[in-house]
Write a structure and sequence with these properties.
The protein is of the alpha+beta class and about 270 residues long. Helices cover about 40% and strands about 20% of the residues. It has two domains: about 140 residues, Sandwich (Jelly Rolls); about 80 residues, Arc Repressor Mutant, subunit A. The strands form three sheets. It has a five-stranded mixed β-sheet. Strands 2-9-4-7 form a four-stranded antiparallel β-sheet. A three-stranded antiparallel β-sheet has the order 10-12-11. The radius of gyration is 19 Å and the shape is globular.
């Protein structure tokens, strides 16, 4: 994986002459703002914490940060796809989770516990932790929103553990596709139950604990049964309700709006 670290490479928000030309407005259809506001996490007045943040464009197939890095900022995915992964001593890789526009990249601890890399070209929004700390006074809803996104991430990982431990290949793949469908729908990136899916079968196998042969066979089965079509960088879910029965789940995203909004409301 090519390395293109975020830390220390982002230009300051203002230069010595006070130029703030690289402050990018995040209003409108921005997935990150859409995700937070649609779930009732923050209001328009709280958006300024993100609007004054720094943006970095990163090429595909580059590490955003590495395991063991000490990073003093919180990173959000503004555009593109990324993924978390761990490497074993012999080089074997385990994909932990995929990140879509609007997701919190992390890190969740002062020292990163895993790698995060881009899948496609992406832009990353960097918010210094001190700004988040200051927002506790000025924009408490934003800090609560960050906590809620972290909690939602752990919910996703818990559900992935259930898939790896108890669901068969067809159930795992069905749950995985439905999860992505719902996550992308919430940020306006789904049309007619179809969405961009820039993942190889190898990467899906890494995430779901399946061989490439097994992934290919499972996708063919879903297509032949009229449930989903995956190929050429896109996925289309033909019958979400039927797939939910296959995946044995009611909440395909495992990120209920009510739970997240309630978390923010407590603050």
């Amino acid at each position: 994986m090519n390395q293109m670290k975020i830390l220390g490479e982002i230009s300051p928000t203002t230069d010595e002459h006070g130029d703030s030309s690289n402050i990018i407005s995040l209003r409108g259809s921005e997935p990150l703002i859409r995700k937070l506001t649609s779930a009732g996490l923050i209001w328009d007045r709280d958006v300024r914490v993100l609007e004054q943040s720094e943006i970095r464009s990163i090429a595909g197939n580059c590490d955003i940060y590495s395991e063991g890095d000490a990073i003093g900022d919180m990173l959000f995915l503004r555009e593109g796809w990324a993924f978390r992964y761990r490497l074993l001593g012999d080089g074997r890789r385990q994909v932990v989770n995929f990140l879509v526009p609007g997701d919190l990249i992390g890190p969740f601890t002062p020292t990163a516990k895993q790698f995060v890399a881009t899948l496609t070209g992406a832009s990353v929004c960097r918010v210094p932790r001190r700004d988040i700390a200051n927002s506790n006074r000025e924009c408490p809803a934003f800090s609560a929103a960050v906590e809620a996104l972290i909690a939602a991430e752990y919910d996703l990982l818990a559900e992935r553990t259930v898939s790896l431990g108890r669901r068969n290949a067809k159930e795992r793949m069905s749950h995985f596709l439905l999860e992505l469908l719902e996550r992308l729908r919430r940020v306006g990136l789904v049309a007619d139950n179809s969405f961009e899916l820039p993942l190889t079968q190898e990467m899906m196998g890494d995430a779901l604990g399946l061989s490439i042969v097994h992934v290919n066979r499972t996708l063919k089965a879903l297509r032949s049964e009229g449930l989903a079509t995956v190929g050429y960088g896109r996925a289309t879910i033909h019958d979400p309700e039927a797939m939910s029965l296959v995946a044995d789940t009611e909440d395909v995203s495992q990120i209920p709006h009510e739970q997240v909004a309630a978390s923010a409301a407590l603050h």
